[in-house]
Amino acid sequence: MKTKFAPLMAALTAAALFTGTACSSSSDSSKGATDPAEKVELTYWSWTPNMDKVVAAWNSKNPNIQITVNKQDGGDAAVTKLLTAVKAGSGAPDIMQAEYQKIPTLVSSDALADIAAEVGSVKGKFPAGTWNGVTLGSEAVYGVPQDSGPLMFFYRSDVFEQNGLRAPKTWDDYAAAAEKIHQANPKQYLGTFSATDAGLFTGLAQQAGASWWGVKGDAWTVDINDAATQKVAAYWGGLVEKGVVDNKPMYTPEWNAALNDGTQVGWVSAVWAPGVLDGSAKDTLGKWKAAPMPQWDAAAPKTGAWGGSATSVTTQSKHKKQAAQFVAWLNSDAEALRLLATEAFVYPAANDATSALTSPPSFFADQPDYYTIAGEASKTLAPFTYGPNVNVAYSAFNDAFGKAAESKKAAAFTESLATIQKTTVDDLKNAGFTVAG
Amino acid sequence: MSQSTEVEPSTTAAPRRTATPVTATRRRPARRAGTPYAFLAPALILFTAFLAAPIFYAGYLSLRKVQVSGLGLGSKARTEVWAGLENYARSLSDPDFLPSVGRVGAYGLIVVPTMLGLALLMALLLDANRTREAVSKFARISIFLPYAVPAVVASLLWGFLYLPRVSPITDVVEAVGFTAPNLLSSDLTLWAVANIAVWGGTGFNMIVIYTALRAVPTSLYESARIDGASEIAIAWRIKIPIVMPSLVMTFVFSLIATLQVFAEPMTLRPLANTISTTWTPLMKVYRDAFTRNDIYAAAATSVIIALATFILSFGFLKLVGRRAFNQED
């Protein structure tokens, strides 16, 4: 009877073991020097809806460079797949949608090609802060910005009117409004501090003047526990401790319900927020308004970013030059921008975007100046550098701020930053990077 | 011992007996020798490709690490080198590792006794009711059904029930006049996750125990009744000792499932602040491999978990083995 368990045990041992994917690195980047008249077929990984319709416009005009869109599940999944393909030495697409915060990770894994020679000329068509995201402050260019997510503030105009409030100009106004609304109706909150959305917090820190990573000679710098981020953490910690904003995560069934039934009456979000509100707060259609972000210094308005991505060429592409041509067209050509905005519903990063966006999103139909506000906001994007281990900092954020939000103590919020700083630096050092400071 | 008794008589008859077999084996050695291996080949190949190779590869990875030169940007900036036991040291000294082990220990203390207790109780109740086959069949299927629900789906389902604003449970409790507790608060999260495991696992264990009970001949119970034993005494003195091997087996299964708890907390994590990315050891493996892109640390932690599973399971079997399986040996 005892022997019966032996094979069982063997199987269980195996089950407990994590099985890594086989990988061997052989990344001989081939030069994209081919005959321009030759017909090439390129693949493009993107998770943007209707991207194939935008690409169709290119394909009809460029019979020699045919692009096939390969729809991806989302940013994280596509990056994991791309990194696996790079390790395996084959299987990567020619062109890849890459979120700004993932670019350093991808570049440090040798997944993205430097296309400075081909696309350097379109630099002037993008806001400087956004362009910085694809150069990482270097001479190289690792992609062309596609969309950007400048932070904006969304609020229920009916609730604000009832309480005699106006859209907050500064963060002090926001705090006062949050308090007033919560006192008038203890069930209502002007917002929530979400410990699961590190991207939003990063944008808020960016607005306050932080840049969490940086390059100093041959070393990386990490500055997550700086004065600007401390200010942001203390501010939100204070609001949570007072109980005037909620401490539950965003993007949960509960949060959706709260937006829809009017208990969450404000949202610090980005230009793409109408799509989310359309899905989760259908019953409140027509009651929301968009406004520029509350400011730390109203005289010098700034904003951060939440989301946004660039289009990059991978190191495995055999036709880098043609791929780069397409990438430049896709994100700066007037017709492409119009298609991106109207068919794929992205907010293009290019300066010309506003000319392509004439009517407001349907959820904000009453607000004709929606894209004017967004355009003004994206001009005030504060510069921010991402590092090669954003994922590590973000997961440390989830853990540290999860505890802090649960404890509802402002002190726990500011202390969390030291933990995230230490985890991020330790990880860089452990991975063998040189860290300055 | 049994071998020597057989060998002795054969030596006396050696000359006549050995003559034919020797010539027989000499005539066709090659073909016969290969046959068993041909039959074994499919199993061996599958075992090597999908079990042994990944295990060795994980072991190999756990001894490696990546070295970065300069900013680590561009090609050839990363090289893989030997790390010795560094990854193991890092895993064990990670401030998140021990708490996650402790959490899983507490989780196991809640889940295993509750789940097996319920499974045994239900199996005994169903068995006591042997005459009403239709009722028993319906009850069996409905208790077993949650086991057929994938853990992720079950966790999403329970997640909705736990979130105060969307939970019908909260509505009911508050309608009666109590304040409903937030089941995803830091005090109760462990219980909330354990509840999903108990809900999903009880049915399977109940079926295993129940099947063992059905194999017991009714004559045993009849003689016990004649001796004046009550139903409870029969359950306690006869049924439970007889199904002990099944209980041991379900215990080992549950122990292993506990050590590998992953899907439930992983699915609930985005819903609450109280579940960290390293809430259980396997979640730490996942974080290291896919969030931190550090497959070397992930491999080291995996090896540690595998060894712990191995030691605990074998240790337990060794401890109870003799007592539990006495009747069958």
Automatic annotation (TrEMBL), chain A:
Signal peptide residue numbers: 1-24
Domain of life: Bacteria
UniProt entry keywords in alphabetical sequence: Cell membrane, Lipoprotein, Membrane, Palmitate, Signal
InterPro entries with a match to the protein in the record: Bact_solute-bd_prot1, SBP
Pfam families, A to Z: SBP_bac_1
Protein name, entry field: Extracellular solute-binding protein
Source organism of the structure: Actinoplanes sandaracinus
Automatic annotation (TrEMBL), chain B:
Compositional bias (Polar residues): 1-10
Membrane topology label: Multi-pass membrane protein
Subcellular location: Cell membrane
Comp. bias regions, Low complexity: 11-24
Pfam annotation, one family: BPD_transp_1
Domain of life where this protein originates: Bacteria
Spans annotated as Disordered: 1-29
Endpoints of the signal sequence: none
Keywords: Cell membrane, Membrane, Transmembrane, Transmembrane helix, Transport
TM regions (residue ranges): 37-60, 104-126, 138-161, 188-213, 242-263, 295-317
All copies of domain ABC transmembrane type-1, residue ranges: 101-316
PANTHER family cross-referenced by the UniProt entry: ABC TRANSPORTER PERMEASE PROTEIN, DIACETYLCHITOBIOSE UPTAKE SYSTEM PERMEASE PROTEIN NGCF
Family per record: Belongs to the binding-protein-dependent transport system permease family.
Protein name (database record): Sugar ABC transporter permease
